[in-house]
Amino acid sequence: MGVTAMSEMALDLKLRKITASEYYRMADHRILREDERVELIDGFLVEMPPIGNRHGAVQAKVLEYLFRTLAGRVSILGPLSVPLGEHNVPLTDIGIFTLDEKGYFGRPPRVDEALAIVEVADASLNKDIGPKRDLYARCGVTEYLISDIENRLLRRYTNPDADRYRGLEHLRYGDTFSLKTIPDITLDVDGFLPPRG
Amino acid sequence: MRDALTSDMAAELTLHRISVAQYHVMAEKGIVAEDDRVELLDGLLVDMSPIGRAHWLGHAELMRYLIRVFGDRALVAGQLTLPLGDFSEPQPDIVVFAPRSAEYRRREPLVEEVFAVIEIADSSLSKDTGFKRDLYARSGVREYLVVDLTNELLRRFTKPTEGSFAQVEQLKSGATFSLEALTDVALEVDAFLPPRA
Questions:
Q1: Testing the interface with A: which of B7, B9, B135 to mutate, by most A Cβ within 10 A?
Q2: Is residue B20 within 8 angstroms of chain A, CB to CB?
Q3: Considering only CA atoms, which of B74, B85, B182, B77 is closest in space to residue B134?
Q4: Low-confidence ranges of chain B (pLDDT < 50)
Q5: Which of B118, B116, B136 is nearest to B179 (CA)?
Q6: What are the strands of the beta sheet with B14-15, ordered from one edge?
């Protein structure tokens, strides 16, 4: 049975929503294993595609760049799960949070501590610019960046409102920008994309 | 905020399936409460429809009729969980089994021992004649009867072949039939339908 077919059939059903606390208990009891990469989106258990080579390499490059540029000013975590309200625990490639001296050891960061979320999109682009983008906007994540590997651009979403981001920019190699919450540090778009060429 | 899975979302998300074994751990650990009216269909946790008066009364009367006409020839059970493969454990309204109580004390009934699965459908008609019908057919349930309260008829599905029931009949008030597994016991369609006003 194909994956899409299942989702279409599932529309006929009233699926029971799973809460964030049930999701974490499922993880504690190994019903969800760490290597399974399952996230909770709007109460539904959703599978993440396996991390391909390109995705992994770009993710490592972005993390390295962020540590180099923002170290000491913020906490940089990734990959991580972020509890967002009662029915959402998305798995996120990289989160930039307000500086926590313990590096968020022993507790997950709260959404109001998120300065930006960065997703590296390869196979997952449609999900990252669809349901996940809307989710981050609804939860008030200030800034959402997608490193779009296929199209070689950085999609930057800002000004979240009730259910969407009002601001969207497409940034390319050579461009610079600053995070809304850290206006004094200039970031190079090249730091978020695969090496040129 | 979104309340249900929309087709846009479903197209982008791959739902994660839970196995019957994992579902049992969830029940054991109280992640799914015993009084939670859910069933596991194809790895998805599905809310069961609320039971209306027409439903429970029809259910009670039909149970009484089936127990009387089958006598020692079959076991008739209401609202039990029926494991079907690794990912499904539906709770059909009524299941008619081969009378092998001694065996069932030691193990779950096999699908070959199920003479018929019966669902009473009012608000759940599209689920019962859609997703659940396909699940029963794929699992090799040899006869599936849906009491269609809305249209006052009995929908009979038989001959499961390659994932669907090859034969579909709509039986109306006044008709008689026999289960494929018990051809010598005549059943009256009227016993399945609510009394005529």
A1: B9
A2: no
A3: B85
A4: 1-4
A5: B116
A6: A38-41, A44-47, B14-15
**Closest Cα partner for B152 from B123, B96, B192, B109?**
B192
Q: Residue A125 belongs to what H/E stretch?
A: helix A125-128
> For residue B141, which phi and psi values (nearest 5 degrees)?
-65, 125
Q: Which pLDDT value is given to residue A87?
A: 93
**pLDDT the model gives residue A9:** 59
pTM above 0.90, yes or no: no
* pLDDT bucket at A3, cuts 50 / 70 / 90: very low
Cis amide bond preceding A79, omega within 30 = yes
Q: Residue A79: which of A88, A97, A91, A70 has the closest Cα?
A: A91
B-chain residue closest to A129, CA distance: B12
Reading the block at residue A108, the tokens are 């997950």
Query: Over the stretch A134-157, which tens digit does the pLDDT of each residue have?
Result: 999 999 999 999 999 999 999 999
Looking at the DSSP bridge assignments, the partners of residue A54 are none
Chain A CB within 8 Å of residue B15 CB: yes
| Mean confidence (pLDDT) of chain A | 90
Residue A103: the pLDDT is 81
Strands (E) in chain A, as ranges, are 38-41, 44-47, 74-77, 80-81, 91-92, 94-98, 114-121, 143-148, 153-160, 165-171, 176-179, 182-188
| CA of A102 vs chain B CAs: smallest distance (Å) | 31
B61 CB near a chain A CB, below 8 Å? no
Chain B CB contacts of A49 under 8 Å are 14
Q: Is B150 on the interface with A (CB under 8 A)?
A: no
Q: Which of A181, A66, A190, A31 is nearest to B27 (CA)?
A: A31
Which phi and psi angles does A49 have, rounded to 5°?
-65, 155
Of A4, A15, A25, the CB nearest to B29: A25
Task: Test B47 with A22 for CB contact under 8 angstroms.
Answer: no
Grouping H, G, I as helix, E, B as strand and the rest as coil, residue B189 is helix
CB pairs under 8 A between A and B: 96
Cross-chain Cβ contact A36/B38 below 8 Å: no
User: Does any CB of chain A come closer than 8 Å to the CB of residue B130?
Assistant: yes
